[in-house]
Amino acid sequence: MILLQSLIHELYFVMAAVVAALLLTRLFRRKTRPGLAYDIVYAYTVIPFILRALHIK
Amino acid sequence: MSGRGLVVRRLVLLAASLVLMIAGTRDIRALRAYRETVVVSDAFTRQAPLSTYFDGIRGTLMDVPVYVFDSGVPGGSALILGGAHPYEPASPVMAYVVMENIAVKQGRVFVIARANMSASLQGMLGNAYPPFFRVKTPWGGKTYRIGDRETSPLEQWPDPFTFVHYPSKQNLAYQDSRNLNRTFPGRPDGSLTERTSFAITELIRREKIDLTIDVHEASMGYPVVSTYVCHQRAEEMCMMAAMMLSAEQFPMKTETSPKTLRGLTHREIGDFTDSFAVLMETPEPFIDKFVGPMTEALMLTGKDEFMQTAANRGLLYADYNMKTGSTLDYRVGRHLGGAAEIIKQMGEFYPAKKLVVSWPTYADVMTQGVGAFLHDPAKAARGRVFTN
Asked: What DSSP designation does B167 have?
């Protein structure tokens, strides 16, 4: 039970890292919505996922 | 824009976001890294990790130190549980004042100053709390953390849709799965918070703790402010202690732990161990929802004009005067006096459980301030200084 909880808990950090990587990739490589506003959104929304992946917040 | 220009623009935006992230989390990182210092008194006997009593929390942030002050003379025993809710800062400060000044002539005293270490290392989401507060001392000052109410999601996540308390199966709010004072008596294969509760329950069982004092603070719009909340087995001694305090020191109420309110120390420790379970609350404007800016000054002085308005309209459950406020000295003094009185009453009601201890009194703290009873780690013997 404790092992399963730990696995699920760690999975959330992994998911945060995957989402952060996805956002970073899309910041630089995307075919649609190339405008400045979307660049800002991608650059800004990556912050909480990096914070969680790094165990900061 | 050209391909190269686009890449440069996006790199600049990413760099700006990272700078914002680093700057914006400075307090968060500082709070998580900071450790408090305590200089234990001459009565200190030993320190042991909480995992001594239950291995299931070993290596986690919840494996907090337990400090033991043993007179070597047979008598009663007490556990002072500080910091179950770190956003109630008079609780750990009271535990530290006890640890730095206690003398024990008979019996044993166990102290946990930071029962939920994880919660003490994160700020409260959305409330704009300051991360630290500083207590002035004759030699400078000591800095303490102001934490959250619940275990950090960095240590326990995800929350269940509804928290089902073990073993009562009572449904509680989802965030209470991370609330140390809703997870007692705990379970060995539960969440980290439940395992921590279980470890504390095991400490109480194995060390045969006669009296458990769980130290809290309450908002003034909450009925149990300035109150002992006691398991029914401790009811009589709580009533006597409250009467003595109200007559001689400060207003104190008493209330018997509701049998249907599960997971709290005053209910579960009383039901699942032989210990008398008592919880103490002080009036703490800092955690009320209708006060002004939640600043360090408000936490230290308890002076707030909106609180005064609420008092004028009869909305509070304790007396309040903005001129005097509800200072940290007052709140810590109350806890010191409240704990001393309930220990005294236990000895009166049950002579075999007599515990003879002393630490600064309510009057001492009110006249000299808490800082007068906190010692300089730089001038203390090395074996006497610990960090939490």
From this structure: T
Contact between chains at B17 and A12 (C-beta distance less than 8 A): no
For B246, the token pair is 């109200």
Q: Please give the tally of structural domains in chain B.
A: 1
- CA–CA distance, B77 with B350 (Å, rounded to integer): 12
- Contact criterion met (CB < 8 Å) for A39 and B13: yes
> Contact A24/B14, CB-based, under 8 Å?
yes
Q: Is residue B7 part of a domain?
A: no
* Residue B300 resides in a domain: yes
Supply A20's token pair. 């952060």
Does residue B17 lie in a domain region?
no
What CATH number is attached to the domain comprising B242?
Answer: 3.40.630.10
Minimum-distance CB partner of A51 among B7, B16, B25: B25
Domain enclosing residue B340, as ranges: 32-387
Chain-chain contact of A57 with B14 (C-beta, under 8 angstroms): no
Torsion A46-A50-A52-A56 (CA) sign: negative
Of B7, B21, B32, the CB nearest to A50: B21
Structure tokens at B43: 């009565």
Quote helix, strand, coil % in chain B, to nearest 5: 40, 20, 40
Between A2-28 and A36-53, two packed helices, what is the crossing angle to 10 degrees? 160
Q: Is residue B172 part of a domain?
A: yes
CB pairs under 8 A between A and B: 51
pLDDT string in tens for chain B (388-residue length): 678 899 999 999 999 999 999 999 999 999 999 999 999 999 999 999 999 999 999 999 999 999 999 999 999 999 999 999 999 999 999 999 999 999 999 999 999 999 999 999 998 878 888 999 999 999 999 999 999 999 999 999 999 999 999 999 999 999 999 999 999 999 999 999 999 999 999 999 999 999 999 999 999 999 999 999 999 999 999 999 999 999 999 999 999 999 999 999 999 999 999 999 999 999 999 999 889 999 999 999 999 999 999 999 999 999 999 999 999 999 999 999 999 999 999 999 999 999 999 999 999 999 999 999 999 999 999 899 999 9
Helix (H) or strand (E) holding B145: strand B140-145
